[in-house]
Amino acid sequence: MATLLNIHPENPQNRMIEKAAQTLRDGGLIAYPTDSCYALGCALDNKAGIERITRIRQLDSKHHFTLMCRDFAQLGQFVIVDNSDFRVIKSMTPGPYTFIMKATKEVPRRMMHAKKHSVGARIPQNVTALALVEAMGEPILSSTLLLPGAEDPLTQADDVVDQIGHDVDVVIESGVPGTVPTSVIDFTGREPEVARVGAGDVSRFE
């Protein structure tokens, strides 16, 4: 059964953040809150972690995993941001958006889209999520905690423990996360395209 970590949502305790980060470094899988509901997360080089997320969510090869990044500079190390898209993306971060972009060589091939060689990337506003990424020193490979057949993602730590407590190593409880998934904007084509309407305003792309 997963370990439940209670972390202060405004002033995350360093020892608790480090405990969660060490779980990731040791090859573990965590469920953690973001500004847009819970997410599953593992270290970038964790092949088994990707397989566990794929199994829990029953994903196919078309799924875009997301790099949860600390800031825009870190995001730019892992995805290719065209000059024409730079200002738009920068103006929307941090925030409830996931951007689909071409991946750089820093991204493990197994987490890219099979055909497009693209990946999702985002910068959250959630303090605990940012502290965790900061402690890792690299993005966290993530996926929205939306279970097969469910219409809505999980938003409560107790529900996460009840439903997938045997499938993850740590569940973080840290205040009230968002309840709506991110809006997803695909920047891999000639023009940005809204792939999912979620918590972020997408009117500029319509």
UniProtKB/TrEMBL annotation:
Residue ranges constituting the YrdC-like domain according to the UniProt record: 14-200
Pfam families tied to this protein: Sua5_yciO_yrdC (PF01300)
Listed Gene3D superfamilies: DHBP synthase
GO molecular function, one term: double-stranded RNA binding
Name this polypeptide is given: tRNA threonylcarbamoyl adenosine modification protein, Sua5/YciO/YrdC/YwlC family
UniProt cross-references to InterPro entries, sorted A to Z: DHBP_synth_RibB-like_a/b_dom, Sua5-like_dom, SUA5_domain
Listed PANTHER family: DHBP SYNTHASE RIBB-LIKE ALPHA/BETA DOMAIN-CONTAINING PROTEIN, THREONYLCARBAMOYL-AMP SYNTHASE
Species whose genome carries this gene: Brevibacterium sandarakinum
Organism superkingdom: Bacteria
